[in-house]
Write a structure and sequence with these properties.
Helices cover 82% and strands 0% of the residues. Bound molecules: protoporphyrin IX containing FE. The site of protoporphyrin IX containing FE (HEM) has 28 residues, from helix 2, helix 3, helix 4 and helix 5.
């Protein structure tokens, strides 16, 4: 599985596509886009987990925080869309999702592998 963890391209592709799908789903709710986004959650988790297993021992605390940030970002993105579908307010969870997304991207680029 070396080709999946020797660089971060797969992981970056999965979350970049997910962010685009999330923006589309927030501005123009659609079942299909939401379903595609859920598939990308799984791909983010798989690609992130593979990187985590490979490099975690370099700096367990920061890698742990990076994983936690990624999982919470996905959780808040999903909560935003579900609350929107139910017609509930999304202000808080949407802001939370954006803040967590920025923190996770910062942590990711700050860690040693990849860019
Ligand atoms: C929306 C969710 C996520 C975003 C936006 C995100 C973003 C990023 C970014 C920007 C990088 C740096 C890539 C590079 O330096 O080339 C990265 C690397 C990484 N991510 Fe994620 N990620 C997310 C979810 C996850 C999850 C769920 C996990 C773990 C299960 C994870 C684990 C990792 C690991 C281990 C790395 C390698 C860190 C390093 O460069 O040394 N990520 N991620």
């Amino acid at each position: 599985m070396d080709f999946l963890t020797s660089n971060t391209h797969l992981h970056i592709t999965t979350w970049a596509v997910a962010v685009i799908l999330f923006l589309v789903a927030v501005t123009k709710p659609s079942k299909g886009v939401h379903m595609a986004l859920r598939l990308f959650y799984v791909l983010i988790l798989i690609s992130g987990l593979l990187l985590f297993i490979q490099y975690n021992s370099v700096d367990p605390m920061m890698y742990g925080l990076k994983m936690l940030g990624g999982i919470l970002t996905i959780g808040l993105m999903e909560m935003t869309l579900v609350r929107k579908k139910k017609g509930k307010g999304t202000g808080g969870v949407l802001i939370g999702a954006i803040v967590l997304l920025l923190i996770t991207i910062y942590l990711g680029f700050d860690l040693p592998v990849g860019f």
